[in-house]
Design a protein that fits this description.
By secondary structure, this protein is of the alpha+beta class. It has helices at about 15-30, 35-40, 45-50, 60-70, 75-110, 160-165, 175-205, 205-220, and strands spanning about 255-265, 265-275, 280-285, 290-295, 300-305, 310-315, 315-320, 330, 335-340, 340. Helix 1 packs parallel to helix 4 (about 60-70), helix 2 (about 35-40) packs across helix 3 and helix 4 runs antiparallel to helix 5 (about 75-110). The two termini are about 35 Å apart.
Length: about 350
């Protein structure tokens, strides 16, 4: 009997390759799923979902698997980033599809045909497979005689329409009315000439006004601000990320750094900052169940509580200033407290951390 179930057919090739690599590492190490759960701190049920392609593991779980199997964390993290982007694209396509299905179901429930450009008028009646019937009390249009497509319609074919469209004959004007109309035209022409002479005189006496208009017209219009283009897989930025999961929004992984770190008892407290998303979140690891990490910035605060695996991270808060000034604090179940402190800058050429 094979050890692993067949991966789902609908999996993206990047996700399928990543899940296959995880299986090969577990097989090579000789670990069972239960032993892998003990070594990494993640439950057996979670690893069964990760290894069967039903759920994408978080990056810190991938790093823990690399440590347990002796694999290179950086190489495995690169495969995880490609799989995470593919997974996010599939979720977006699924959301669009479900939205289209919901709209179609709502239209069908309201009796709105798919080929109608607008909702039916109030009071209109529908029958299956037909268009809306005329509203009660409406005046019907004259009937159109049937004819071949090659025939050219003429006014004789539509006597009712021709009579309705014919313009009314102009009434004859009396000589006195024509005389009064001519005088009115002469007076209007004279007034227009006076207005033109007055405008010319004003421009001659006030040359600066026309110059100011030309100067204002020659000024270039302010260029519209370009909308920020986010990297592939990143789904929010700034205030739009507040309260959301950094991994689900694509702000973690290669897009995040650790500007400050500290301890609360044995627990490690870190601030994670994403320059792309302009957000930060607190992460607690190597903690006992119930230990907490809290972070505050930009008028928002977030708290996370360590689970059985001893790790957790908070939702995101917006950061507009120096991320090194953002501190996260932790409190253990025994009452021990501690806060993070700025981490020294990484020397040039040194490898960056691969953890989320």
């Amino acid at each position: 009997m094979p050890r692993w179930k067949a991966l789902p057919e609908e999996l993206d090739p990047q996700v399928r390759e990543f899940a296959g690599q995880l299986r090969r590492l577990v097989d090579r190490s000789g670990l069972s799923v239960a032993a892998l759960a003990d070594a990494t701190g993640y439950s057996k049920t979670s690893w069964e979902r990760y290894l069967n392609g039903r759920l994408l593991p978080p990056q810190r779980a991938v790093v823990a698997l690399a440590e347990a199997t002796g694999a290179h964390p950086a190489h495995l993290t690169t495969l995880w980033e490609l799989a995470e982007r593919a997974w996010s694209r599939d979720e977006m396509r699924q959301d669009v599809t479900m939205e289209a299905i919901s709209v179609a179901q709502a239209r069908a429930a309201l009796g709105w045909d798919a080929d109608q450009a607008e909702p039916p008028a109030k009071g209109a009646r529908f029958t299956k497979g037909t268009k809306a019937a005329a509203a009660p009390g409406a005046t019907p249009l004259p009937s159109v005689p049937q004819q071949r497509r090659t025939d050219s319609p003429s006014a004789a074919d539509f006597p009712e329409w021709a009579a309705a469209a014919a313009p009314a004959a102009p009434a004859a004007q009396s000589p006195a009315r024509r005389t009064r109309r001519g005088r009115t035209l002469m007076i209007a022409a004279g007034a227009a000439g006076v207005a033109l002479l007055g405008g010319a005189a004003f421009l001659l006496l006030n040359p600066g006004t026309e110059t100011a208009k030309k100067t204002a017209a020659s000024r270039p219009a302010a260029a519209p601000s370009a909308k920020q283009v986010l990297p592939a897989g990143v789904r929010c930025t700034g205030a739009g990320c507040v309260g959301k999961d950094p991994e689900a929004m694509g702000c973690g992984g290669a897009h995040a750094i650790t500007p400050s770190r500290g301890r609360a008892g044995r627990a490690v407290i870190e601030v994670r900052y994403s320059k792309v998303c302009h957000t930060a979140w607190a992460r607690i690891s190597r903690a006992a169940p119930g230990d907490q990490a809290t972070l505050s910035a930009g008028g928002h605060s977030a708290t996370a509580q360590a689970e059985r695996d001893g790790a957790a991270y908070t939702p995101m808060v917006e950061v507009t200033g120096d991320p090194a000034k953002v501190a996260a604090c932790g409190t253990t179940v025994a009452g021990v407290k501690g806060c993070s402190r700025p981490v020294p800058a990484t020397p040039a050429g040194a490898p960056s951390e691969a953890r989320p």
